[in-house]
Amino acid sequence: LLIEEGISERMLAGIKWMKENDNDAIIIGAVAVVNYLLTSRPLTPDVDFLSADIEKVKGKLKEDSIAYSSLYNEIGISVKKFNIDILDPDEGNKKLNSFALSDYTIVKIGGMRVRIITPEVLVIMKFSVGREKDDADAFKLLKSGFLDKKKFLQEIKTLKKDLNNSDELIRYSELIPEQQ
Predict the structure, then answer these.
(1) Is the pLDDT of residue 1 over 50?
(2) Is the pLDDT confidence value at 176 over 50?
(3) Whole-number CA gyration radius for the chain
(4) How confident is the model at residue 7 (pLDDT cuts 50, 70, 90)?
(5) Hey, what's the torsion of the CAs at 51, 56, 61, 64, to 10 degrees?
(6) At what angle do helices 132-143 and 119-129 cross, to 10 degrees?
(7) pLDDT band at 90 (very low <50, low <70, confident <90, very high)
(8) What CA–CA distance (Å, rounded) separates 165 from 3?
(9) Is the pLDDT of residue 132 over 60?
(10) Are 85 and 68 in contact (CB under 8 A)?
(11) Looking at beta carbons, which pairs linking 168-176 to residues 24 or more positions away fall under 8 Å?
(12) Residue/partner pairs of 148-152 with CB below 8 Å, 24 or more apart
């Protein structure tokens, strides 16, 4: 992990703070991607969370006198002290966000057991963002061997009416290697 000195410690402190103050949040974004890839990739120097209750998080930050600012387009908040961004579940695709918050896995990061988005939902979320770097991450994840094709297709079916790219996602499922 090649990031500026001191940032990784702040990120771990941010993960710890979120774990202690918002047990319902999940890690999404680049940190989740590298968790599932067998190869490394450059990371943005932050951790992205999806929070079940961003107002509760804002209140806890205020209680702890920790400053935060709004993210672009008001989709969440950024906490510079911890190099974390916390996304609001009521912004963007609400159904996908709600689904992601209910379908997570537990991993260890910095010795802490934390909630992280499943690889299947992460791919759906990455493709829904529509940025080139997110599409590239999604294609790498599809080929990683970490996705369960049956689960991926079931989740697309569950979310179909809330996705504008479900037919495309179904075609992409062909890239998922068969389970051994």
Answers:
(1) no
(2) yes
(3) 16
(4) low
(5) -130
(6) 150
(7) very high
(8) 34
(9) yes
(10) no
(11) 168/127, 169/123, 169/124, 169/127, 172/123, 172/127, 172/138, 172/139, 172/142, 173/142, 173/149, 175/139, 175/142, 175/143, 176/142, 176/143, 176/147, 176/149, 176/152
(12) 148/120, 148/179, 149/173, 149/176, 149/178, 149/179, 151/118, 151/120, 152/120, 152/123, 152/124, 152/176
Residue found under tokens 């010795």: 111
Q: What does the block give as tokens for 174?
A: 């062909």
**Could you give the CA distance from residue 32 to residue 172 in angstroms, rounded to a whole number?**
20
Q: Where are the beta strands (DSSP E) in the chain?
A: 26-28, 47-50, 69-70, 76-79, 84-87, 104-109, 112-117
The number of angstroms, rounded, from the C-alpha of 155 to the middle of its chain's C-alpha atoms is 16
How does DSSP assign 103-134, residue by residue? SEEEEEETTEEEEEE-HHHHHHHHHHH--HHH
